[in-house]
């Protein structure tokens, strides 16, 4: 799971080669080709449902025509629209993406704890900043078996 800053066809392809699953939010300016939906040229052209998720499978993304699935919905308690690109079943994409926020909160807590412990036990060359990425992987492994 990742936010818009990580949208990259190269990253999507790399994760595919590893055999992993991903849900990565994209910006609305990404080119898209959806069979039978010729009026949709960019993600922003996809209208959202009032209380639901629009799901598209076998979408061609960007000029590279990367084949993926997309889920589009309004974020809860916000006017923000989520365009989630995934190699999973698009029905599961929003549910999985929401876990990102729980993971970030737990990571912040772990980083704080590590920082407090480091004041007493960890040598100064290891900082909480260097531990944050590891925390995300640990939290994800615990929270998402």
Structure write-up:
The structure is a single chain. Mean pLDDT is 78; it is low at 126-145. The protein has helices at 9-18, 90-118, 128-143, and strands at residues 23-26, 32-33, 54-61, 66-74, 81-86. It has 3 helices and 5 strands. A hairpin with a 6-residue loop joins β4 and β5. It folds into 2 domains: 4-90, no CATH class; 98-143, no CATH class. It has a 5-stranded antiparallel beta sheet. By secondary structure, it is an alpha+beta fold.
Protein topology:
Elements: H1 9-18, E1 23-26, E2 32-33, E3 54-61, E4 66-74, E5 81-86, H2 90-118, H3 128-143
Antiparallel strand pairs: 1-5, 2-3, 3-4, 4-5
Helix pairs in contact: 2-3
Low-confidence stretches: 126-145
> Roughly what fraction of the amino acids lie in strands?
15-25%
Calculate the terminal CA-CA distance, rounded to whole Å.
Answer: 14 Å
- Biggest sheet character: 5 strands, antiparallel
- Succession of helices and strands: HEEEEEHH
Strands of the biggest beta sheet: in what spatial order?
1-5-4-3-2
Q: Give me the count of strands.
A: 5
Number of helices: 3
Task: Label the overall shape.
Answer: globular
Radius of gyration: 18 Å
Average per-residue pLDDT, rounded, comes to 78
Structural category: alpha+beta
Number of domains: 2
State the share of residues found in helices, binned by percent. 25-40%
């Amino acid at each position: 799971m990742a936010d818009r800053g990580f949208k990259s066809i190269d990253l999507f392809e790399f994760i595919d080669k590893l055999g992993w699953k991903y849900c990565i939010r994209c910006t609305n300016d990404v080119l898209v080709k959806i069979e039978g939906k010729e009026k949709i040229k960019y993600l922003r052209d996809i209208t959202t449902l009032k209380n639901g998720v629009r799901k598209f499978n076998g979408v061609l993304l960007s000029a590279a025509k990367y084949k993926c699935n997309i889920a589009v919905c309004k974020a809860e308690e916000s006017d923000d629209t989520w365009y989630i690109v995934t190699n999973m079943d698009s029905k599961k994409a929003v549910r999985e993406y929401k876990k990102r926020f729980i993971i970030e909160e737990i990571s912040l807590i772990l980083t704080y704890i590590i920082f407090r412990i480091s004041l007493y036990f960890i040598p100064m060359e290891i900082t909480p900043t260097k531990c944050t990425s590891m925390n995300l992987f640990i939290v994800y492994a615990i929270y998402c078996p």
